[in-house]
Amino acid sequence: MARPRLFKKRTRPDPGTLSYSQCGEDLICDFLLQHILGIKEPYYLDIGAHSPINRNNTYLFYARGLSGVLVEPNPDACLKLRKVRPRDKVITAGVSDHSGSAAYYRMDADTLNTFSAADKQRYIEQGHKLVSEETIELLSAPELLSKHCERCPDFVSIDVEGLEMPILESWDFDAERPPVFCIETLEYALDTTGRKRMDIIEFVVGKGYRVYADTYINTVFFDAARWPGKGILG
């Protein structure tokens, strides 16, 4: 006599359980957007997109049929982004507190590519090699939003290896207030101490946002004015 099966066999992951982010940030932001803020189809902006799928905070939304803007200074990475994510608008540029251009240092490990001459030198001292130096366009946050975004994004992911503050300082929060930000706030890109970038957290909170979650590497913020009802915010 066959024994009864106690559990239904699963042939694929349940919808919504598969994360493409480094530490599940996409699922956290998806829950916050959909189930708390009521934004079912977020328009996203990914600054420092790098990979089209793996360790990417916006691919979950792309896989759902949505689209947005991806910004990445590495020309080779942009080719992959355009190939894998043709619905997205891909911009080959860096983002800072000013527009123009800057030297972009490409290292033997592309995750170490940087606009920072100090970081480039530190990587060389650690045994890495400089592959090339290129001049890449720089956009300020207001210029990026006005030229390349259809509207104010619902979700903004920022991962630019320690250069997050210039972007945030140039952001016009009075004119453009995305409901949700996911920002890298771990200082390991700058040194080896693993400290949190409290200056970033304090700056964003000072603009009227609250911390919703922290994965140690990234911090998720939401616009406090968008929180439904009073609830925990008083």
What would your notes on this structure say?
- By secondary structure, the protein is of the alpha/beta class.
- The protein has helices at 25-36, 59-63, 75-84, 117-125, 141-148, 164-170, 198-206, and strands at 44-47, 68-71, 89-91, 94-96, 100-107, 130-140, 155-158, 180-184, 209-214, 218-223.
- The strands form 2 sheets. A 7-stranded mixed beta sheet has the order 3-2-1-7-8-10-9, sandwiched between helices. The protein has a 3-stranded mixed beta sheet with strand order 4-6-5.
- It is globular.
- The protein starts with 24 loop residues before the first helix and ends in an 11-residue tail after the last strand.
- The model has no long low-confidence stretch (mean pLDDT 89).
Order of helices and strands: HEHEHEEEHEHEHEHEE
- Reported CATH architecture of the domain at 25-93 and 141-226: 3-Layer(aba) Sandwich
User: Major sheet, described briefly?
Assistant: 7 strands, mixed
Rg estimate, integer Å? 19 Å
Strand order of the largest sheet: 3-2-1-7-8-10-9
- Helix/strand/pairing class, anyone? alpha/beta
CATH level 1 class label of the domain at 25-93 and 141-226: Alpha Beta
